[in-house]
Amino acid sequence: MADPVPAPPLASLTLDGGVVVYRLFDIGYAIELDAAATLLGPSGPARTRPARIEAQALQIANPPVSVPLGGRALTIDGVACRAQVAARLFDFGVCSIQLEVAAPSGVAWDTFVRFAHGVEHSPEVAALFATELAMLRERIAPAVERAGLAPVNEEYVVVRISALRDGSTAVAPVSALSDERLAVLLLGEPRPLAEQARTGLLANRFSYYADDLAVLTWDNALVVEPQPTDRDVEYILEFANAQLLELRVYDALLDAELPAMYDRIAAARQRQRPLPTRRFQSVLADLQTRVADVTETVERAENALKVTDDVYLARVYGAALELFRATAWRRGIERKLEIFRETYAMLNGEAQAARSELLELVIIAVILAELVLGLVRAA
Known about the structure:
With 379 residues, the protein is of the alpha+beta class. It has helices spanning 33-39, 109-120, 123-140, 179-187, 195-201, 232-270, 281-302, 312-323, 326-378, and strands at 14-26, 28-31, 46-47, 58-60, 65-76, 79-89, 94-102, 107-108, 144-147, 153-165, 205-206, 213-216, 220-224, 305-307. The chain has 2 domains: 12-234, no CATH class; 240-376. The protein contains 9 helices and 14 strands. The model has no long low-confidence stretch (mean pLDDT 85).
């Protein structure tokens, strides 16, 4: 068996690549994608889905709308750069804005690492996202149902490499990206990691062809893809982040609703009403509406992309959801929804008991009235 190809010296590795920063926002209860595409017509929107043949195993009932927003000036570590901005709209109310900055061609590995970190931490990026989001929300406002910007947002960074060389013109294998290099790039760790830490933090690696690679972490990923038009892995990661954002938004919403619900119940108990059976009517109606809204939106987000076979993109998608702890977020939402349902059942039971008591009093009053009338007639 042939010996493994040693990794080229750090200083000799050069590459072509760039950095894509994703910022995702919840801008409403739902987005009517056909209407949004019409409003964005001059910008050339498209309903996009993964392009690979094996992506047929991924079912997307309502593909998101993607739209280019043009180039923007950006300064990275004191150097003027040109960033390309685009957006993607999901029907469950999420808007994803992407900012892509290309590195100089043939850049050395250590220089590229500094560049990637500079893009990720640039103070101009946040302001640029805020400006682009405000303009986009204004353009698509008629297509957004129950518009409103959630306080929770999601950020993810994809470092993309399209060509890897050993310092000359020779193509370097993806195995040249050792754990030490990946730790510096993705984790920002200049010191060598312990084997246990390296195994855990850099365990999610995927390859479909001999010359591609995807390495996923919690808040960023590396994608090595020689085909410049192949963005399927990034598409899947963006979709998973959009679903994660919905889970986080509604988890935070339920966290805020629980104490408010307890306060409303306490106020309703103290409120004097002519009919005590209607004391909790508004609270019960609001509880039912909230549970229905949260359940519908979360289900719509989770079912937006379905996997029918264990293919490469499906494995990337599953690993991303596991890294993002989507199942744990979902369980947290279910626990809170169960509290709402139990509270609804308790209040409804209390209202039913009050109704029964009132009915018993009415029956007793009718009986007494008949007795009195009978005595009056007898006299």
